[in-house]
Amino acid sequence: MKRAFSMIIQIAGAGIFALSCSELLPPAPEPETVLAGPLEGLTAEQVRAHFAGDGEFGRIFSREEGLGPIFVSNACESCHIGDGKGHPLKTLTRFGRYDGNTWNPMLDRGGPQLQQRAISGYPPETVPPEATGVTRLLPPAVTGMGFLEAVPDAAILALADPDDADGDGISGVPNYVQPPEYFTPQPHHLPQNGLYIGRFGKKAAAIDLLRQVVTAYKEDMGVTSDFDPRENFNVQAGQFTGDEVADPEVSAATVGNVVFYIRTLKTPPRRNESDPEVRAGETTFARIGCAGCHVPTLRTGYSDIAALREKEFHPYTDLLLHDMGPELDDAYTEGSALTSEWRTTPLWGIGLAEDSQGGRAFYLHDGRATTLEEAIEYHGGEAAGSRSAFRNLSPEEKEQLIKFLKSL
Amino acid sequence: MNAIRKLKQKIYGAPIAILLTALPLCAQNDTSAVQSAVYERPFIEIGQSATAVGGYLEANTNYFREDGVSEGFTMEMRRFNIFLYSTIIPRVRFLAELEFEHGAEEIALETAQVDFELNPAFVLRGGVLLVPLGAFNLNHDSPKWEFVERPLVATQIIPSTLSDVGFGFNGKVFPGGLLLTYDAYLVNGLGEEIILNDAGRTFLQSGKSAERFGEDNNGSPAFTARAALRRRNIGEVGVSFYRGYYNSYKIEGEQVDEKRTLQIAAVDFNAAFFKAAFNGELAFNSLEVPGDLAEIYGKKQWGGYIEVVYPLLRRKMIGFENAVVNAAIRAERIDYNVGNFASTGEKIYDEVNALALALSFRPSAGTVLRANYRHHWIRDFPGNPAIRSAGFQFGLATYF
Asked: Which of residues 183-222 of B touch A (CB under 8 A)?
């Protein structure tokens, strides 16, 4: 009996060991399935800086390290898991109201961003009842953003067609926004009356990645920095309440590390690019006018990072605002955008959205669409023509188009 | 003549009165109660002193890879612990343990307790004591185990090694040929950093603030207790419990927050069948979390492990009498956040499954050389495809 038991144990152990032999040390996933990673061509110093930023990007803030007093999330990476699109749990809520024709971001009521979480013993914010516009924004993927930042303003303006001069029904406009105090203009910037073209954020309200990162630290995590050392308090509780950590809570160097990390992330990889079905879908994508806004190819200008300099890349955006019609009008806006206008979402990486959103995709700015077909159906306004054309496609053409989108 | 007397004093008076009273060994038919583990260690008496000294050290190598990325080969001086034990007078005992982790990176007074035995069934205990929460927390000395890593449930769900300042009592009774042990203490308890910590989730380890050895963060002690039933040569089953408020809800006597409760329940067992030894533990945490934080900082957690240790060889080997070669396997699972997302209604993941294999060589009861292989499947919050982490460890641990 004992011998038999011994034998069973040993055989079971050997079996388990043998089963796991093939994958004793987990291999890297296929590169085309992963969003994270540095872009090719960085110097050793730049790779080191990239990973320093990676560490800061993944840093989880505790209450003692400056989290809060009000916040949305506790780490960059908890919203941008694997550098990809975020989960609805980490949705940002922004609000404001029109006072006559003037947009009021309701700063005195804690606007424009809601911090729906707070350190324990401190009240989280709620949306004031006076707000007439409330929008919910899913965290975007952050890969390839260095390329978008390096696109010259002139290239964006070349794609604009505010009066629809070509008569295609699409009239992209840039969002001119007020730069923050710490903004440093770049040679390629083309300001108008002190306003600069925004290109990041769902409404293109951020001119560069520095502004995005500084704002994310403060508005999303409640972490002050050298660039913006003023704490975010819950105005319902009163200024200077709840904050027990000295400001700034992170240094300019830390912010810089994160900016560098995001700038030097690789572009999202393609999959099945040469599949005939995918190529047919790409043709259909262009034919029905999707590429009028989701411009496949852009080119960077000068960049202090050689690997980003004068490079052609494929983000499927024009970085311009487009009127998307009443279906996507949240009565909320930023900068000079209308409430129905949204910056063209870069489609690169959309095929990997499910892998960062828990195996189920949430599309559009607030995740209201769970399939690509549904997302297309929400496209109104300037995209209404493309939507109609999509509806008229054969089932096979629709399938090819979806395959193409999932290959991005 | 004088020289011979001095030699005798050295031989008899100085070192080595090793108290190996039932030193428990995995797969070596451990028959001692978990409650007694803290005393069942080898101590060395020094001279004529009433105080005995002991300790253990633990070091290991690591080679891990996570989804194709490895930090390479590293070596780690994990722990160096020193025990002091003294019978102050009959039935009054003192025990202390000082722990150095990763060299001197972290130094902690793990135990400093006095036992006053009125009767074996009723022993008063006070000082810095091991919280009787699960068997592993009470019986965690590295040389006793075949694995370099502690069970995940004992580090991620129960924050072992969990010691605290407290007072209470313990005892043992022998009903019907069984051994019934119990412990019950009031302790300062874990602090509010179990949420809003740098782990980004509910994590009880983060609640072990150093300040708890000085004062309670809220003036309300936590209660903790364990009861276990043991049958000689078969094994032991224990149940344990902890309950207390974890947040600092009062400042200068004024209530500034709601009282938030933390409860931990655990079941543990160890048993010997045929030649194999079985160990396992299951723990559940339940805590009150502010509503706005509940999805990120879980209100419920659980974890468990089971391991089997089997002696492949037990004989004289390379000059060591009673040497043993053991094989062991451990399966583990922890869920940091039990619940569903309010926004989607879907399950919150944030969980780890693990499998570990071990081959160990014990030249003596208190020394182990061990080779381990571990494989973790880690699911993040939303349940994205599992990250896999695996690697090899080689380690040694020995009492001294």
From this structure: 192-193, 195-200, 206
Q: Chain B within 8 Å of A368 (Cβ-Cβ)?
A: no
Contact A81 B381 (CB under 8 A): yes
Residue of B306, B308, B343, B350 to mutate, interface with A, max A Cβ within 10 Å: B343
Q: In the predicted model, is pLDDT for residue A11 greater than 80?
A: no
Q: DSSP class of residue A377?
A: H
Considering the domain delimited by B2-399, tell me its CATH architecture: Beta Barrel (2.40)
Nearest to B144 by CA among B360, B322, B320: B360
CA torsion A246-A249-A250-A251 (nearest 10°) is: -30
pLDDT over threshold 60, residue A343: yes
Which residues lie below 8 Å from residue B63, measured CB to CB, with a gap of 6+? Answer: B70, B72, B73, B74, B391, B392, B393
Best CA proximity match to B369, nearest among B313, B324, B332, B330: B324
- Which 172-191 residues of chain A touch chain B by CB within 8 A? none
Above pLDDT 90, what percent of chain A? 87
Q: What is the pLDDT of residues A291-307, one digit of tens each?
A: 999 999 999 999 999 99
Classify A320 as helix, strand or coil.
coil
Q: Is the pLDDT of residue A5 over 70?
A: no
CB A26 to CB B195 under 8 A?
no
Contacts 24+ apart (CB under 8 A), B208-212: B208/B159, B208/B162, B212/B164, B212/B165, B212/B188
Interface probe with A: pick from B344, B357, B387, most Cβ of A within 10 Å = B344
Per-10-residue mean pLDDT, chain B, length 400: 46 36 37 84 80 95 94 95 94 96 92 96 97 97 97 97 97 94 98 96 96 92 98 94 96 92 98 94 97 95 98 95 97 97 91 98 96 97 94 97
- With cut-offs at 50, 70 and 90, classify the pLDDT of residue A114: very high
* Separation of alpha carbons A292 and A286, rounded Å: 8
For B27, the token pair is 């797969």
Beta-carbon contacts below 8 Å between A and B? 133
SS3 label, residue A283: helix
Which of B70, B196, B296 lies at the smallest CB-CB distance from A120?
B196
Closest residue in B to A34 (Cα) is B67
Q: Which pair of structure tokens corresponds to residue A343?
A: 């910056």
Give the phi and the psi of residue B32 in degrees, each rounded to 5.
-95, 155
Packed helices A395-407 and A276-287: angle between N→C axes, nearest 10 degrees = 100
Every domain of chain B and the residues it spans: 2-399
Is the backbone peptide bond immediately before B143 cis, with ω within 30 degrees of 0? no
Asked if residue A198 has pLDDT above 90, the reply is yes
- Whose CA is closest to A61, among A258, A221, A242? A221
Contacts of A234 in chain B (CB under 8 A): none
pLDDT of residue B282: 98
- DSSP-based three-state secondary structure for A6: helix
Interface residue B384 vs chain A (CB under 8 A): yes
Q: Is A297 on the interface with B (CB under 8 A)?
A: no
pLDDT tens digits for A28-38? 999 899 999 99
CB of B259 less than 8 A from some CB of A: no
User: Shortest CA distance to A318 belongs to which of A93, A195, A163, A159?
Assistant: A159
CB B26 within 8 A of CB B277: yes
As a whole number of angstroms, the distance between CA A308 and CA A264 comes to 8
C-alpha dihedral, A68 to A72 to A76 to A82, nearest 10°? 150
How confident is the model at residue A10, as a pLDDT?
A: 63
Euclidean distance between CA atoms B72 and B62, whole angstroms:
8
ipTM of the shown complex: 0.89
